Amino acid sequence: MKVASFNINGIKARLPRLLEWLEETRPSVACLQEIKTQDADFPAVEFEKIGYHAIWHGQKGFNGVAILADGTRPVEIQRGLAGEPEDEHSRYLEADVFGLRVVCIYLPNGNPQPGPKFDYKLRWMERLRRRMAEIAAEEVPALVIGDYNVIPEDKDVWDVRAMASDALMQPESRDAYRRLLNDGWTDALDLHHPRGGLWTFWDYQAGAWQRDHGFRIDHALLSPELADRLVGAGVDKAYRGREKASDHAPIWVTLREPAQSLP
Known about the structure:
Layout: E1 2-7, H1 15-25, E2 29-33, H2 44-48, E3 52-57, E4 65-70, E5 75-79, E6 92-97, E7 100-106, H3 116-138, E8 142-147, H4 171-182, E9 186-187, H5 188-192, E10 201-202, E11 214-215, E12 218-222, H6 224-227, E13 230-235, E14 251-255
Parallel strand pairs: 1-2, 7-8
Antiparallel strand pairs: 1-14, 2-4, 3-4, 5-6, 6-7, 8-12, 9-12, 10-11, 13-14
Helix pairs in contact: 3-4
GO molecular function: double-stranded DNA 3'-5' DNA exonuclease activity; metal ion binding
Active site: 106, 147, 248
Keywords: Hydrolase, Magnesium, Manganese, Metal-binding
């Protein structure tokens, strides 16, 4: 089974590229971020034409997340994070599908820092940690996948100095991410590519794609119950180079089916 994630950076503008990727790679589950559309305008019919059913949590012009499944409809568990009732950003969607608890996230960017946006990012990460602890307590096979907007280590960026002042790699951001790992979650991409140098984002500016000046901010964290089933993890880098591409490339994990218990 393959579970993938793609920050599409505007689902209307890049729908042909998204459908192309789905049909060519055929993940069982696909999590989307930055769909940037309100709920009423989500193109669910286009996905149904190629066999995918979706749930989504939209927002006009900004943010927005969705979960697609091949041949079945995800069962929604939760949208949004508890802790700040006034927070109306569409950044979190959780569902059960194919025997997995799948959480799709679009974590706040946090720039400019310091400032209120960075403070919001850190609060959001702590709220996420609390929800992940609740999921872990259920002891279900789970993964939290999407755009974390965190560069975990120096090996995950093309030039440390170029990003030194960015919210994505501040010590506070990295510490918050590390706490998730210390809670028992496994970073699938890091596990399979421990030397780093694996990018998931290349800016549109300054020829970043052509010069391979990227960094890793899209992650898949697996619960202990699911980490034992991890077969592989990677990035569909080539899709970043296609016409009218997102500035992110899709990431994916492959999982073996659960062992069948004997009668």
